[in-house]
Amino acid sequence: MSIYRQLATRSLRCVAARTAPATVGSVSALRLASGYALNRDRDSSRSNARSTGRRSRAPQQAFDKPNNDAIEELTRSREPIRLEVESLPRLILNRVDEWAASERVKARCVAFGFDSQAATECLDAWTFKIKEDLLMWDDNGESLITQMAARGWDANALILAYESGNFAREFENAFLRNFIEYAAESGPLFIQSHLKALLEATDVSRHAQTYLQARSINRHFHLHMGPTNSGKTYQALKALSRAKTGVYAGPLRLLAHEVWERLNMGSVGDLNGEGRATNLLTGEERRNVHNAGLVSCTIEMLPFYGNAAAEPWDVVVIDEIQMMADDHRGGAWTNAVLGVNAKEVHLCGDETTAHLLQSMVDSFKGDTLTIHRYNRLTPLVVAPESLNGKYENVQPGDCVVTFSRNNVYSVKKNIEGTLGKKCAVVYGALPPETRAEQARDFNEDEGRSQVLVASDAVGMGLNLKIGRVVFASMTKFDGQRDVPLSLTQVKQIAGRAGRFGQGRTTVDNEDDNAATTDEVAAPGGVVTTLHAADLPLLRAMLPLTLPAVTRAVFELPNEALTSMLPLVHPTTTYADLLDHTAALAKLPPNMVLSETRNRLALAEVLEEQRDVLTATDIAVFSNAPVNTRDPKVAGIFQNIVQAYATDYHVDVEEVLKKSTLLHTLKTVEETLAALPPLPPHLGIFRQYLVPPITVGGIPLLESLHKALVLYIWLSFRYSLAFPDRELATAYKLRTEKVLEICLERLPGVRQLKSAERTKEMDKELALFRRKYVDKHGLVKPSIKWVNQEQEERMRKMKRWRSAATEADEVTEIHDRTHKTEGSIQQHHPKQFNYRQISDRGSSW
Ligand SMILES: Nc1ncnc2c1ncn2[C@@H]1O[C@H](COP(=O)(O)OP(=O)(O)OP(=O)(O)O)[C@@H](O)[C@H]1O
After folding, report:
1. Stretch 517-528: mean pLDDT, rounded?
2. Full-model pTM
């Protein structure tokens, strides 16, 4: 947070506390006490200690002590933040002098066409007028709102900004717009018409009116509201499956894919196996089915304007509507509600958005709305006990939730080492296709995995047979520090337990919500924590209702940027253009601008090619799916932009070459191809079956996958400049395959001891040995990387031996070496002898 923001925050807090003492609470409903961080540290220190074989230094007591402070804080911070309208004038007064005197405001004025002398004079005059106005306003709520509106202040927007904790930036933007409106009427004559043009270009408050088709019909909205696993999507899809034309729009391409498959196969609602021809449309994939009346797509690809004949869709289903409050992607949901051309719009999500959606729909003349409310189909209970910090207590059907890829691996290793049961993994950086494969391995009876270890990515998009969710920690590292899990995250993740019709473990709990279902409800879900100390917190959080979403996230339309372009100085960078437009934008009611951090990072790269790229190019590239936190992908994005700008021809292999990611893919593929299969019923014998590159290569393969998805995404927008879509898709599929095998071979599962093996198992094992193990008890070394490792050892050995022969005093060692010449493996029996280690627990 900048110093300015800190000061602004502090001063506004003080004023608010003075002016509305009884109503100001803490900013976030769930910004909890430091006890969270303690739990996370304990968790990771514990897993580190296990994996390194050391004892954790954290005293055992700390794991068991309930975190009362955090629970108390939780209860207190549930108090809603309130700001009375009467406090607003004072908040404005307190800030106005400092704001007007600041250099950044002057710089902004210069960018808008003022000279600095004129800017200072005009700002002084405006400040004086504000103070005069403030003295004249009476302090009665309703009339104050009207008086403020007459002077260009949107009191309700400022109150919402304050209550949602974003007020510093938004107050500043409100000052800027108010000042420019004033200057456009009363400022220096030479600039007035220019300022009016700026105000017009950035006025997006009537953006909904630009969706002409949607405005010309009367849409009927159905809100399907309920917690996870309450059957909302099921009911909405039923309506879609009956429609002649329609669309399903979901948050992930995984979900779009799943719905596409289900509609085509007829496994939705009333279809009873009679498939409906449905097309698939995602940023990276298009599949056309003959005579398709339906489309399944990701929300960003929603065909707003209706079907191919430009007629309104009969039914459009928009899933996970609460995502309209998401800082980064929320704009896509908001636009869908504003502009989709459909007779019936079904919105599925949790209760938090009901009020906001009602007021949005009310603002569209002629549109109507019905709300359907649902309860969970299966009960969800908090277990009476935690796992008491012991992975031994994990059961088949459990999903252990932790955060970050490394923690997922380390928990997987701990569980596999302790229980001897294989774990599937799901985390955000895994390609969705690989996630789905892991989910299948866990869900299906013949799958190898009985336990799932997942990050919060498990909260959405996958149907999983989870009986019990176990939170390994109640905090998450946000890139800078540990933050407590939000109530939304806790509820979304916990809700995965006991999925209707998919449950695995049972709890004795009668389901009383399942009256409307077509089939018998499955047993309910259970949720618990790994550590005893976290359980009371979980128990306190689960029954809480989620705070209502008060504002939808709004994405700056490209038209606003292109209208602004001729109005700013020609040397203005794209990042500054974005920033100026966002600062001056007049938004529709109850909306807040989306987060532009990632877009600004991409804009910096695009700036290098600003003389070549068109405004449309910049708009497309700056919205490309690039995670700038992954330096490999960010580097490849830079190569792509450069190749596009210089040659208008982007060769997929060429842009990937510098990153060596394709080389990694080939090396891992070759390594895997030379490996014997995994031994049956045994844990993984790391030395032969898990070459280091198959573990170390996983993050690189994940980056490669993202880079390929980016290429494919761009190829759908510029098919001439990106001609290698097929090749990129082939590489993408290869990457997914290799990733799956690498995950399959991740070391961890303890080898079964002979007492634990059945005769059948022994038989299969004997077969395996005969085929892959030589007479010395070694896995047959036809494997390139093993050979290379052996050669390296031989080289070292020779060097060491020659050094030893030179020194008389090491004769004894030399003799010992000489005896075993020709059988280098015998120097490392622990590493190479398969027979010797097969009965030992894996050291991984
Ligand atoms: N009436 C029903 N008959 C049969 N199966 C149903 C019924 N309602 C829901 N299901 C099944 O229950 C599971 C959960 O339903 P659904 O995905 O619609 O819930 P949801 O409330 O949308 O959950 P989420 O918010 O997690 O997406 C699905 O597998 C769905 O097919």
Report:
1. 64
2. 0.79
